[in-house]
Sequence to fold (664 residues):
Amino acid sequence: MERVTIIGTGLIGGSIGLGLKASQLPGVEVVGYDDSSSALATARKQGAIDISARSIGDAVDGARMVIIATPALAARSILQDIAGRLAEGAIVTDTLSTKAEIMHWAREYLPDNVSYVGGHPMAGKATSAGAAESEATLFHGRSYCIVPSPDASDGAVQSVVGLANLLGAQPVFMHAEEHDQYVAAISHLPMMVSYALFSLARESAAWQDMRLLASTGFAGATRLASGDPQMTHDICVTNGEALIHWIDRFIEELRRYRGMIADDPGELFKALAGAQLKRDAFLAGADKPEREQMDLPSASEQMSTILFGGFLTSRYQEYEKRMRESEERNRR
Amino acid sequence: MERVTIIGTGLIGGSIGLGLKASQLPGVEVVGYDDSSSALATARKQGAIDISARSIGDAVDGARMVIIATPALAARSILQDIAGRLAEGAIVTDTLSTKAEIMHWAREYLPDNVSYVGGHPMAGKATSAGAAESEATLFHGRSYCIVPSPDASDGAVQSVVGLANLLGAQPVFMHAEEHDQYVAAISHLPMMVSYALFSLARESAAWQDMRLLASTGFAGATRLASGDPQMTHDICVTNGEALIHWIDRFIEELRRYRGMIADDPGELFKALAGAQLKRDAFLAGADKPEREQMDLPSASEQMSTILFGGFLTSRYQEYEKRMRESEERNRR
Fold:
């Protein structure tokens, strides 16, 4: 039995477990651990994990792969706690929303005989969803960022690529700093904007009248403010510098619109119409450059054989084929 | 036959038509007019209108009620065009997103022998949806702002209240300036924020890498940037002052979060957790004050009898009953 351990069995950890189980890999058992015994029990009940570990040390004992799927700040002490218990050659990965800090902690705390490969599946749910909302298909068609540490073995990198493929996601390689800048712009800034939109209206003296007028637009624009505050807090703490950079740029951009509203309705109309067109092109996937169409290593067939064997390779080949077909359809 | 005319048969006009037809009022015919012959044909095909008018003058000829459901700036020339063709005692209303300007135009252009009652049903769809997406139930459970002009007859006000009820919406009375301030905060500011979030990322040099990481959060936060640019432009032009006021307040609010991210993670966590709780309470309707629980005129039974007769009154009574029941459920 190859053992895969998931630490943190909330929405992401639980969905990874369900995805692993759904693939019916022979000879793999999934061990789960969570500080919250109810999250752990839910994951067990849903079949996301085979075994509930009693302690974090027990959880990683003999594990071939350890997946940390907790809020960002919790990962630090987890790395410290598991460092002495990891099997030689173990692969450690994570699903955290920020990467530079955890790569730094992994370098600091983990022994040399294990490989660290950071990960970030770009999926989630609107609200602060817990274990109960886990789904095997949560990652289908999503990007899965992979950030190998400099000294991670090839096999370890391939195994995490294999995990991403197994979950139906598309692996994307990035440097930790790049990743953190991009998610600051595309994910963490929208969060903070959502909070600010909500609290501005909510704390306004006229809220009780305003709320009568709040429609789907307001609900949608403030949706991220119902996210898990611990997750958001940890993101802000571990990616504060990039986030502040993007908040400042966003304020400039909003001021640009303000200027057009005040002085130049013609220019404003052009900007609004242009944004609509470009957003629709983005949603339709029509603005992808050529180079991105097949961004996978050529040695793809050898991939992911380390941990999951030929079983996974054939699945990977199937996905690769489907992706190529889908791209050909899109090109037409 | 009582004639109700809808000018502008897009999503809102078409949905009002469908709502009117769905109520199967006897003795009412719905006339539609739209500059776009395809929007008009769609409305006719969907059964949102009984008659397609060939000109705007023909459309309002003999109409008891005229509903203007166009982008805001178009309403000005429409009021000028119809002023000389309106029947004595006609009721003119609208569905525009801003109210002060149109109330002003109505005062300027309409004759004394007609009544103007502004309206704003708080409903819509995510994207720049046209006539084809009209639905009879679009306004169900939504607020419907009613802004009577100072010299509108009681009967005219009651008829527009009747229209709101007929569509399943909840009438809310407001002054034009109040309305415009509130929607600036709750609806127009989120729009501009959505555009700025999208264009900031889209025009960034790293967009082609960033887009790989864009998940449901980014799509949701930028959703309003796929709205109809003409609608948004007109809103900015007719409500610019209020919108700029709220953009400035929003920038201050975002700076407050920026400050907490930089200096005070503890305070930040409190703010995030507080926002989540308050937003969830808002979505659950749990933060409504007592006074708002039944904010309808006491003469409700006499309402809406002017245009639609007893038929509508009984429907209204039914809605009132349902609302009371729903509120009782919520209180439990």
